Each structure stands twice: as C-alpha cells, then as structure tokens.
C-alpha cells in the first residue's frame, strides 16, 4: 500500500489538467489532426480515469500528470487501436498455397484492376452495347469457356459455394451417387456429406473406402438419381489395394442412363503442370473433354487468382444453376471479377506463365535459386539470434498446398535453426517461433524434427530485402 497521504492525493488530483485544457493543448493538435476529435476525446477520458483510479487506490508510483506524458500514452493507445488486424507476414512455411495465410498471391495486373474497380464506377451489370442492365457473369464467362473448352460458365464466392449451388440447383430432394473413397473433408468445415445435406440432396454412397467399381455406380442408379459425382481427393491419398472408377468410364454410364456427371476438381488447374516438373493433375479442359457435364474448382488454388468458385459445363445445366436463388446469395463482388479476369488472361500466353503468374512462379522456382537466397539470409539471421541458436542453410521440401496431394513435394532450400548446445530445446524453439511471429512483419515458419524450419521458396527479392532489414533491426 502507499504512503500517499490524503492531502498529497488531493494535491495530485487538483493538478490533473481538465479534459478541455488537454484537448486544446498544442501537444494534442497533431493527434486531433490524425485521429479526429471523437477518438482522441474518448482515449483522453479513459487515460484520465485510469490515472485517477490508480491514484485513489493508493498506487505509490502515481506522480503528477502532465500533458506531454498524457499525449505519449494516448498516442500509443490510438496507434495500436488503429493498426490493421490483417497484417502482411512472411510465409516461410514451405506451403505455397497456404489457406491460413490467404492462398494465392496475385500478379500486378490483377492488383491494378482491383484498384480501378475500387475507385471508379464500372460496367459490372451494365451492357455497354444496349445501355440496358447486364449480367456480371458476362464479363468473364467467354474467357473461362475459351480456356476450359466448356459451353458455359458462372462464378460464385468460392468452390464450396460452387458445389453447394450445383447440388442445390440440380439434385435437391434427389440422390447423388458418390464413391465412399471420395467423401472427403477439406480443411475445416467442408465435408461432402454435409454440403450434400445442406443442399437438400441425398447422398448415395457406393463402393468402399479403398475400392469402387463401375458396377457399384451402375447398380445404385435408380428413379431418384439426379447426378453422379466425382470429388478430387485433394488432401489425402489412398495407396495399396485400390480401385477408383475414372471419369472416362463413369461419364458414358451416366449419359446412357440420361444422367449428368458433376466433378469437384478442387484445385482445378487450367494447364498441364507436368510440363514444369510439377505433379500431373487433370486439367479442367481434360475433365470437360472426358465427359463431365459440370466441373467446379477454386479461383485461389492452383489457378492463382482471387477467392472464387468457378462452375463450367453444359449450357442448359449452367442456365439452371444461374436461375437458382442461391446464385444471388453466393455471387461474387466486383473486386473478385476485376482480379479474376487479368489472371485468366495470363493463361492465353502459357509460355509466359511461370514468369507472370505469381503462384506458378513460386511453384517452379528452382532449388538453386532458393539456395542462394538462403545463403544470403543465413548470416543475418545467425547474427540476429546470437549464440544460443545455430542457423544453417539446408535443402528441404516445399508443398503446393490447398488440396494438391500432400505427398507431392518440391525440392527447396531454407534455414534450419537448432538450439546451439545440441539439446533438443523444445521450449527454446517455441520461444523463437513466437519471437519471429511477433515481429513487425511476422515471420511464419514451422517446427519439425527439433528445429525451426524456414523455407525460402516464397521469399522473392523484395521480400528478401525486407526480411533482411527487419532482422538487422532486431539485432539492434
Ligand atoms: C479446396 C476444395 C474445396 C473447397 O474450395 P474453396 O474454394 O476453399 O471453397 C472443395 N472441394 C475440393 C475437392 C477442394 O480441394
């Protein structure tokens, strides 16, 4: 407890400047200019109240309050309160399309288009030819059809929405046949059986987890069947004694029985990635050619664009989907369309894609180039961390992420930080991980095998310079 006597306390209180005097002071003019009267007034009142409360509770540390001191604390409070919660980080996790870190990074063409759409009116739903009301899908559907070979296309908020809308429009109160091996859950809260019931469709499971045969689909078809559906297994792989029925076999069966096949491709690439040494995935065009009547895929996975769900396929089915009331609820905003169009246009020059499309540039970055970056950053990080940690540049493997198979890995390079005295140092590694996460621009790595691993695949030149600056500052 304090030695502040009643008389001293009264004297301290009497010297507290009034709110009016504080607000009118020269010190506060700058704050008022930056933050406006409402916020500053609120923060000043809070600061004075809390000062009075600690003085009254007899906090011995309380001394006379002056305006300059008050200004510093109010300014710090306001600055912190107005900091954006969505912050840039360094993605050194080794997962290029990291869902929790925002997936695809967009090329500058898309950024510029978004800025225009944000700051200037645009023909979002306005037909410049007729002067009448237009359809926002018209801005982009021809381009999607050109790149996929589909008859028609539409775009919604994300691929989960694309699947929900497709099932709601085409299979409500009816049955959808899916192999048990494809009833997947994709990163938190997207589960095929749940989406199916939300859409009002009945799931008809066929086959077993590891093996499904064409005859299983054939026998399940009945008067209630609306659709046959295939789902990309995305984030898991079944190996060993397995049998999956390919689209080439399912499509003719469905069509012979007058039914449609929908394929949820997940990542949905528009180009054959194996030409750059990446894992082979069926492209959207190949899926359409193999007989899929509808294909759904994400905009911000391998495609490298903004968050969106693309639905392509037969004209009559797309028309039905577009008429469903959920389409209006799940439609994309103008920022999405603005960003998506220039990304799709990049695909018209496939030979330039590894240069221009950020996602593909990161995925195809050579391990040699990444090694050079690791060798440049290594001494800076070592100096910043001091002698308690040992930093080494070492080869490692990156993942594509976002539903490309987790077993597909890309040779990369990065920094491996171990506790210097050779102990396993679990607690020290956690402390280091936290320290990096709390930097001005947080550095996100991962702990594995008693080391903190920082994969530099996603650290391109400008970011590398910024990371080096930040680490140099941390040392000082
Ligand atoms: C990722 C994924 C989804 C969900 O896509 P979002 O764009 O994240 O909504 C759905 N199905 C499959 C197969 C996926 O891989």
What is the third-level CATH name, the topology of the largest domain?
Answer: Aspartate Aminotransferase, domain 2
Strand runs, count: 15
Low-confidence stretches: none
Shape: globular
**What radius of gyration results from the CA coordinates?**
29 Å
Number of domains: 3
CATH superfamily of the largest domain: Type I PLP-dependent aspartate aminotransferase-like (Major domain)
Number of helices: 20
Bound molecules: pyridoxal-5'-phosphate
The average pLDDT value, as a whole number, equals 93
Largest sheet composition:
7 strands, mixed
State the separation between the terminal residues, measured CA to CA: 38 Å
The CATH first-level class of the largest domain comes to Alpha Beta
Strand content: 15-25%
Q: How are the strands of the biggest sheet laid out side by side?
A: 2-10-9-8-7-3-6
What portion of residues is helical? 40-55%
CATH architecture title of the largest domain: 3-Layer(aba) Sandwich
**Structural class by sheet pairing and helices:** alpha/beta
């Amino acid at each position: 407890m304090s030695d502040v006597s009643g008389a001293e306390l009264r004297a301290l209180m009497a010297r507290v400047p009034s709110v009016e005097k504080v607000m009118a002071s020269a010190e506060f003019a700058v704050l008022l200019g930056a933050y406006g009267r409402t916020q500053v007034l609120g923060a000043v009142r809070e600061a004075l109240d809390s000062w009075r409360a600690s003085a009254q509770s007899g906090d011995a540390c309380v001394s006379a309050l002056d305006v300059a001191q008050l200004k510093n604390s109010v300014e710090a409070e306001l600055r912190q309160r107005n900091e954006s919660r969505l912050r840039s980080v360094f993605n050194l996790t080794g997962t290029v399309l990291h869902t929790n870190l925002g997936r695809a990074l967009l090329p500058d063409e898309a950024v510029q288009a978004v800025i225009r759409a944000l700051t200037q009116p645009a023909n979002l739903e306005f037909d410049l030819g007729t002067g009448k009301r237009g359809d926002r899908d018209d801005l982009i559907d021809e381009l999607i059809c050109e790149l996929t070979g589909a008859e028609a296309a539409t775009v919604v908020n994300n691929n989960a929405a694309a699947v929900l809308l497709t099932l709601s429009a085409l299979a409500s109160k009816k049955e959808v046949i899916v192999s048990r091996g494809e009833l997947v859950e994709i990163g938190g809260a997207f589960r095929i059986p749940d989406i199916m019931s939300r859409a009002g469709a009945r799931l008809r499971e066929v086959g077993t987890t590891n093996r499904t045969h064409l005859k299983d689909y054939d026998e399940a078809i009945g008067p209630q069947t609306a659709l046959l559906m295939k789902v990309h297994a995305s984030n898991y792989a079944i190996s060993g004694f397995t049998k999956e029925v390919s689209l080439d076999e399912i499509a003719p069966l469905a069509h012979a029985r007058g039914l449609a096949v929908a394929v949820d491709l997940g990542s949905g690439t528009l180009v054959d990635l194996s030409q750059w040494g990446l894992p082979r995935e069926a492209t959207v065009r190949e899926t359409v050619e193999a007989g899929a009547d509808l294909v759904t895929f994400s905009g911000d996975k391998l495609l490298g664009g903004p968050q969106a769900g693309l639905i392509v396929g037969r004209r009559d089915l797309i028309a039905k989907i577009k008429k469903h009331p959920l389409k209006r609820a799940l439609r994309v905003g103008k920022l999405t369309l603005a960003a998506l169009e220039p990304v799709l246009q990049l695909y018209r020059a496939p030979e330039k894609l590894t240069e221009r499309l950020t996602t593909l540039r990161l995925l195809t970055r050579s391990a040699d180039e990444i090694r050079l970056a690791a060798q440049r950053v290594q001494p800076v990080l070592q100096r910043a961390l001091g002698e308690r940690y040992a930093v080494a540049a070492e080869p490692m493997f990156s993942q594509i992420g976002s539903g490309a198979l987790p077993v597909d890995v890309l040779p990369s390079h990065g920094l491996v930080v171990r506790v210097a005295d050779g102990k396993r140092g679990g607690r020290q590694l956690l402390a280091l991980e936290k320290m990096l996460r709390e930097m001005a621009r947080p550095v996100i790595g991962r702990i594995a095998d008693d080391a903190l691993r920082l994969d530099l695949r996603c650290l391109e030149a400008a970011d590398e310079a910024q990371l080096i600056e930040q680490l140099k500052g941390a040392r000082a």
